[in-house]
């Protein structure tokens, strides 16, 4: 039976969404085409009607994964939206460095779930991943205090610290749950303490990056 253009577009979106989630859960090499299409409710052969190759799907799914939403970054209510940036940043840090985010990689940040895979997958995947990382940086800059080059530098420091902590927390969760929790709690405290967010001084970073 011939599929309408609307249904074909819906099927394609379903494949990309399924791949974006499964890749984050199991890695780029841990998921086969059959599993992706089955999760999307389609047949194995259906994938190649929409994508030239599995690699093409992986690149698009990687970009789709960077559309991830973590409360409260996009889920702020009206009152919270009026908070000062330090309060909003604290809420974001605590949401990102949570047990829930650690335990559900398929719905979370692809930077923490797929960085190693992307580094090994060749330049085209690396380019797609870099676009996603830049999107993350731009989103996080909305809640990081400051302006100019120092603001971007602080965003990179904060984001990189959170990604690294989440990777370590996931890697240790099964073997040493207490250590995993300690990593998350320590970074929450360091990056966004309860009273007032105190950013590490990145002026030296900015200064050194501009010197030769």
UniProtKB/TrEMBL annotation:
It comes from Comamonas koreensis. It comes from the Bacteria. PROSITE patterns: HTH_TETR_2. Keywords: DNA-binding, Transcription, Transcription regulation. The keyword rRNA processing does not apply. Residues 9-69 form the HTH tetR-type domain. InterPro entries: Homeodomain-like_sf, HTH_TetR, Tet_transcr_reg_TetR-rel_C_sf. This is TetR/AcrR family transcriptional regulator. Transmembrane segments: none annotated. Residues 32-51 bind DNA. GO terms for molecular function: DNA binding.
């Amino acid at each position: 039976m011939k599929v309408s253009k609307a249904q074909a577009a819906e099927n394609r979106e379903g494949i990309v969404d399924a791949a974006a989630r499964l890749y984050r859960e199991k890695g780029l090499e841990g998921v086969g085409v059959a599993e992706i299409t089955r999760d999307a409710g389609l047949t194995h052969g259906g994938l190649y009607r929409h994508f030239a190759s599995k690699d093409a799907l992986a690149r698009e799914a990687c970009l789709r994964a960077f559309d991830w939403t973590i409360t409260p970054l996009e889920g702020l209510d009206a009152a919270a939206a009026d908070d000062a940036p330090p309060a909003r940043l604290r809420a974001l840090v605590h949401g990102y460095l949570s047990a829930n985010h650690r335990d559900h990689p398929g719905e979370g940040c692809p930077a923490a779930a797929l960085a190693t895979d992307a580094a090994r997958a060749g330049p085209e995947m690396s380019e797609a991943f870099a676009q996603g990382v830049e999107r993350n940086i731009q989103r996080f800059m909305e809640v990081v205090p400051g302006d100019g080059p120092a603001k971007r530098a602080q965003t990179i420091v904060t984001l990189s610290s959170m990604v690294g902590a989440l990777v370590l927390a996931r890697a240790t969760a099964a073997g040493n749950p207490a250590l995993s929790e300690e990593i998350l709690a320590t970074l929450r405290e360091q990056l966004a303490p309860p009273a007032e967010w105190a950013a590490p001084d990145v002026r030296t970073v900015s200064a050194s990056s501009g010197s030769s």
